[in-house]
Protein 1
Amino acid sequence: MAFGWIDEQAELRRRAGLVRTLRPRPADSPLLDLASNDYLGLARHEEVVAGAVRSARRWGGGATGSRLVTGTTELHTALERELAGFCGFEAALVFSSGYAANLAAVTALAPHGSLIVSDAGNHASLIDGCRLARGTTQVVAHSDPDAVRKALRTHDGPAVAVSDTVFSVDGDAAPLAEYAEACRGRGAGLVVDDAHGLGVLGDGGRGAPYAAGIAGADDVVATVTLSKSLGSQGGAVLGPARVIEHLVNTARTFIFDTGLAPASAGAALAALGLLRREPERAARAGAVARELHARLTAAGLEAVRPDAAVVSVRAPSPEGAVQWAAECRAAGLAVGCFRPPSVPDGISRLRLTARADLTEAEIERAVRVIGETRP
Ligand SMILES: Cc1ncc(COP(=O)(O)O)c(C=O)c1O
């Protein structure tokens, strides 16, 4: 039978406790949300929603074509200017998702004969970029500048190191300044994915490259998503103008993809405006994460010290993690649940996101529920 092997795989998944299911989120969910990536609480902010509505009214429901044909509006170019300026880079290029931005950056900057040095903790979209690129990938130990240095010494041609700035599973930050130095020493480029740094790290949320003093360098490229702190949807690559021009001409996920929807561009622009006016939002997200971590560890739970807004709590097993998250949900708290194969180290976790708009009472409630439901 066609696709018969699918049923065997499904059975193996079921036995291993790894079945994933979709659960539609109601618009007016009563749950306390520590599961989304809406770090600054902007997804439903009235200015962000108004930015989306205004843009859809003026430009329509979709971009109507790829960026190089009809899919570039003045909204897209304004967003690119604003993102580059805010994060401290020379230029930016907006994509329909952060995933597409990562595929573009890695594939376009790692041609045939090049070396890609990839941190072992990288997000799936960077890993897929490495898989699609023509260069050869060497995966190196997590957050280890010496390992990057050593790998770069094995190769003489073009090379690039790629890393998340804040790792999405444990919320720890990469040693960006050391990575940049290791790359510079070998004339290699550095591509960093700031999905979880933008809006949280750096002065007023300008991102991890800005915080590390490497934003705007001619050998550093950053990717961002518009779907986390900015409460919108889409992605971007930030870097030197010559790199951006190279992407416009060569990146397949730019050339062969419909441009970002006007509503998403308008929402992201409004969110950036809010971040400029209210820079304290970024610091608050970090402070909430540290408070969550302190209270969870005081309650005897094993949690990783957060460098940004992600707090990771160890669970005993994949089944234990699923059951823990379900019991939190039954008690009114939405938390993320990470387990294999999303986590290659095999360790299952609850993943909490520290929103800047959580109140003290909500933080207290979250910690109480997590403590009371632990397996
Ligand atoms: C580190 C990281 N990079 C990239 C992405 C992909 O971004 P997008 O959702 O905009 O495709 C995500 C998650 O969504 C992420 O966590």
Note: Residues 97-99, 102, 123, 125, 164, 168, 193, 195-196, 225, 227, 235 surround pyridoxal-5'-phosphate (CB under 6 Å).
Protein 2
Amino acid sequence: MGEDWAISLKNVSKCFKRYPRPVDRLKETFLPGKSTVDTFWALKNINLEIPKGQTVGVVGQNGSGKSTLLQIIAGTLTPTLGELQVNGRVGALLELGSGFNPEFTGRQNVFFYGRLLGLSQQEIEQRFDDIAGFAEIGDFIEQPVKTYSSGMFVRLAFSVVAQVNADILIIDEALSVGDMYFQKKCIEKMKSLKKQTSILYVSHSITSVRNFCDRAIWIKEGEVEKDGECSFVCEAYEDSFIQRQAQNDAINKQNETNKITKNIDNQEQEVVIREVTTNKSTYLSGEDITITLNLDFIKPIQYYGVGILIRNEAGDLVTLFNTVRDDVVIEKPHEVIKLCIPNNNFTRGTYFIFASIVDDHILYPYDKLDFSANFFVDVKKNNIGIPVAEGYFRADHNWIF
Ligand SMILES: Nc1ncnc2c1ncn2[C@@H]1O[C@H](COP(=O)(O)OP(=O)(O)OP(=O)(O)O)[C@@H](O)[C@H]1O
Ligand SMILES: [Mg+2]
């Protein structure tokens, strides 16, 4: 490993033993060969080289191996196979609790943890006021940390890690238990350390990985699924769970369609929604969207309303359109009805269309078709590659100076 490398992993794998019953653990020690033990590879053949000064975000589902990877790099776990080289002093904020003794006061833990991270007694004394000042936990610094809230705990732990002048900073999503004020303060601190420090940052907030890191690694079932430029990896990871959601919803849609078939058998029904389609399956924000409803009128109804609900992947109602609400009066059967949404303001994600034909006071449905169609919206990126919008919707707006 040359001078420019901070971390290098060659074919690193980690195997855990899992004992079905506690007694199996004892059996393995005292009666080798008689125990029932399962082996589980939490990391498989990981190859990584992280240059000095790079900020790397690690993403992946629960249980995919992110914390295991960070603990191996931090030295609190040893790899079962493979080779690890770490070039410099590591400051790690791993799971809550590691490195702190609950019976000690905050002050004592600063010294205890500081020594663990490689600082001398004198160095910690010099930095103590900065550490306590950054943590902002007041008199609690003199109380045993077992009396701390999880937010206070992470405040103190981060403050120590941030003051050790580590060459490699490892943060495992612990920050998320801090309040908004402290999370912001941590991010600002990490930004100031970014230039001279290599940072490995696990987070379930894709936005913070995307905006803060230079590179992202997606860990899937113990293997590197994607590694590279941040927005590329984050997008692939996001798409993977959008796809999973769409698969679930397709099953729901199937169930709903079955219900509709029953409705068609009902001789009393006046109108049936045959089909709902969109003019494209993927839109860029700002493009026009056209939704088309095809209806079959079995009995002539004169006054009715058309409703379209748009839900996101979580099932939340994002917006709705209804002719009755819009004071649009329909006076005869129309077999094809279109809704045009010009210059769409949707943010990135998959959207599901729920259609209904209702009476002219929206009191009851003549027919409805849930999950009748879906579409995907991708958001434009700005000049430096950050999506122009996030959240539920993007209102039209102007900046005035
Ligand atoms: N000490 C252990 N003994 C046995 N299995 C373990 C041990 N530590 C972790 N595992 C298993 O290894 C896998 C990876 O765990 P890990 O904690 O690295 O996941 P993670 O990606 O950090 O998940 P999360 O997003 O929930 O924090 C999991 O299936 C977990 O059950
Ligand atoms: Mg974890």
Note: The two ends are 52 Å apart (CA to CA).
Protein 3
Amino acid sequence: MHVLPKRNGIQHARRESDSTQVVQNVILAPVRITRLFIAATVLVACTPRPATAPVPKPTIIPHSAWEATPPVGFAADATRRNKAPGDSLSFHDLRVGVLSTRTDSTGAKPVDIAKLKLTLGDKSEERDAREGSAFNWNGYHVAIVAVYGPGELGGGLAAIEIGTIASLPPQIANSDSAGGAAMRLRIRHNITHITLHHEGDAQPLRPDDDVPKKLRALYSWGASDRNWWDVPYHFLLDTKGNIYEGRDYHYMGETNTTYDPSGHFLITAIGNYNKQEATPETLNAIADLMAWAVSEFDVPLDNIKGHYNYADTDCPGKYLRKYLEDGTFRRMVEERLARKKKVGG
Ligand SMILES: [Zn+2]
């Protein structure tokens, strides 16, 4: 919007005849700049920006209050995705294509292998990469975190992590093993979306369930089964409206599907919302958190969605999905933004 008056100014100047151009440039330039400045100021001042009104951060139960061990991993200039054969992952000027995945059963122990095609400028190379291996290629470190076989969660997908060698600690940069959770990279992101999930547990969450114990179980399953450096979500909620801190929201979350979680503020309701209705306490806590995130990161209300909007999944379950689709969460968030705006003037 700010460039509009400037563009008009340039077009206007182009229409002026050459003979008057020099004189006008000398005499009128300061006037024009002042006008532009006023126009830009008015535009900014008149643009309604409800999303920037401060909304209080809801009370959060800190990670340290439920964890058995603190999160691991290293911050780096990196990316990580689950990719299906035929798909590719681009990072800076590198592209890693997954041509195919297969299981090699010729050895004593079957090994899952991803056939990759690496491309950077006019350089290109195909190579077989074993699950759990890592290699360096033209300034990049590529780790094959997992190749999920048939029947496994994420079957057919390859979990690939790429970092610039320059941004990595030496023990990762020099490793030919992808390693487990402790060797994963923390990927900074700018939050642009708010995405609701549910845990999808076999059983609904009951009020007397031990929630910290469930969180510790999620953490250790994520670390051992998925090589995640922390729980996959940024915040996790119970049926009483308690909000538990998950992964540091400055870093990208995780998924078992193929969508790109970078930029997504991940909220999950513990339990199974295909099997249980949300309590008013849970709904209010979700809305409080969403409203805070909208305000804190300037997230457009249209970007409040569910996991199912981005991947082949029914997450966050039909009993939460209905509130995304009938506008309930949007209305609750708008109420919270308006409430704070009135108080703050
Ligand atoms: Zn989900």
Note: The chain has a mean pLDDT of 88.
